[in-house]
Amino acid sequence: MADKFDVIVIGAGPGGYVAAIRAAQLGLKTACVEKWVNKEGKVVHGGTCLNVGCIPSKALLETSHKYVEARDHFAELGIKADGVEIDVAKMVERKAEIVKNLTGGISGLFKANGVTALEGTGKVLPNKQVEVTGHDGEKATYDAENIVIASGSVPVEIPPTPLTEGLIVDSTGALEFSEAPKRLGVIGAGVIGLELGSVWSRCGSEVTVLEAVDSFLPMVDAAVAKEAQKLLKKQGMDIKLGARVTGSDIKENEVVVKYTDANGEQEQTFDKIIVAVGRRPYTQSLLDDDAGVKLDERGFIYVDDHCSTSVPGVYAIGDVVRGPMLAHKASEEGVMVADIIAGHKAEMNYDAIPSIIYTFPEVAWVGKTEQQAKAEGIEVKTGSFPFAASGRAMANNATEGLAKIIADAETDRVLGVHIIGQHAGELIAQGVTALEFGASAEDLALICTAHPTLSEAVHEAALAVDGHAIHIANRKKRK
């Protein structure tokens, strides 16, 4: 007879491991299946985010930013630091150490919470059974009252630039460069492309970003996107919009990329290429043909608002289902599903999920853009405040960017908060809280915000919605 669990989670990324821990905390007998093997041949937890995504990329972003700050800006603060150099190998080594510590931490949390870690590849069978194929090929079958699929996503590959070890890489390969390539091409000006392009640009690469779409960061409020494009260009990143890659040729240790833009056919030579055109749900060998779990037309597992699939008792969360491919979204879905399985009522507000691009300055947003609201026929009023007028931003030598709030013109309810600036990813929590609690712009304006802090910019933007900002001249309202 197969071992039986109340919950079996497939995948130990930020959705899966959180779901497993929460389920175990709620008294459910829980197992979590993971197949990810590190360079030492050991199964590790944390998924893409922890092993080759959010965490390692932030480690490289932070190191490379500190390097540029020391090299180019310390003198402005009165700090003499001549001959500053970056040790790329040491930077990558530090990144690996952080990943090792955190993956080990998850394994420890599994033990502390009584989660059974199953090593191997999970497959959903009919009748709520899970088959686990170990790395030695041995198969074991487990019964489950409930299954949570959290198999995540993988980078999208494109035919014009097939991955070629050492020359054309995806986001994972871009974290492992041993030195900064002289000429680096990045295909895709989304979150991943801009972050990885920033890292290697700071380390000395000449970075060209090729983006097929004509607009820059279309998911971001237009005022913030415009500012981001200007600042990244100022930092040396050559962002070509409307540039559709059509092919590539490898000549010795160089890659010639062919693309079309408004001026016709073009080509450019690079030492390395990063393909960062998005991610797709990972469902390879995940579902038995008779499992009954349905996929939508894009290959995502179909789920309802509570992450239930077409099979009762089988749930799916994170990148493998609809919605933004964000670690924190996956984690919150994991908590919701575990609560539902345990018999509790649980909901998730998909309108209050923040997004962040960890360039410098950071770009962060939650809720609607001004353009979205207007397209939906909502009359809006907005308020903005530049960090150039912030005392703390001046003290930090980080005066670039702005905070912007979009509110319903009739009800004053906050519809969106958009920030570009130092620590925007931390500041956006104010906006998430405002949306979650249905706050008005006046609510944010009435909050006493500590001085001097960067968070005052959000407060002033809220004041500016009704023309009451204190530390900038307010726009005259049209009569």
Which short descriptors sum up this protein?
alpha/beta; Enolase-like, domain 1; 22 strands; five-stranded parallel beta sheet; flavin adenine dinucleotide binding; 479 residues; disulfide bond; 3 domains; FAD/NAD(P)-binding domain; FAD/NAD-linked_Rdtase_dimer_sf; 12 helices; Pyr_OxRdtase_I_AS
Could you please describe the fold and organization of this structure?
This protein has 479 residues and is an alpha/beta fold. It folds into three domains: 3-155 and 280-348, FAD/NAD(P)-binding domain (3-Layer(bba) Sandwich); 168-274, FAD/NAD(P)-binding domain; 352-465, Enolase-like, domain 1 (2-Layer Sandwich). The protein is built from twelve helices and 22 strands. It has helices spanning 16-25, 47-52, 54-73, 88-113, 191-202, 222-234, 327-341, 370-375, 391-395, 424-436, 441-446, 456-465, and strands spanning 3-10, 30-34, 116-119, 121-125, 129-133, 139-149, 153-155, 168-169, 183-187, 206-211, 238-241, 244-251, 254-261, 264-270, 272-275, 279-281, 314-316, 355-357, 362-367, 380-386, 402-408, 414-421. The strands form five sheets. Strands 1, 2, 3, 4, 5, 6 and 17 form a seven-stranded mixed beta sheet that branches. Strands 8-15-9-10-11 form a five-stranded parallel beta sheet, covered by helices on one side. Helix 1 links the parallel strand 1 (3-10) and strand 2. Helix 1 (16-25) runs parallel beside helix 7 (327-341), helix 3 runs antiparallel to helix 4 (88-113) and helix 3 (54-73) packs across helix 5 (191-202). It starts with a strand and ends in a 14-residue tail after the last helix. The model has no long low-confidence stretch (mean pLDDT 97). Residues 353-462 form the Pyridine nucleotide-disulphide oxidoreductase dimerisation domain. Its EC number is 1.8.1.4. InterPro entries: Class-I_Pyr_Nuc-Dis_Oxidored, FAD/NAD-bd_sf, FAD/NAD-binding_dom, FAD/NAD-linked_Rdtase_dimer_sf, Lipoamide_DH, Pyr_nuc-diS_OxRdtase, Pyr_nucl-diS_OxRdtase_dimer, Pyr_OxRdtase_I_AS. It is found in: Cytoplasm. GO terms for molecular function: dihydrolipoyl dehydrogenase (NADH) activity; flavin adenine dinucleotide binding.
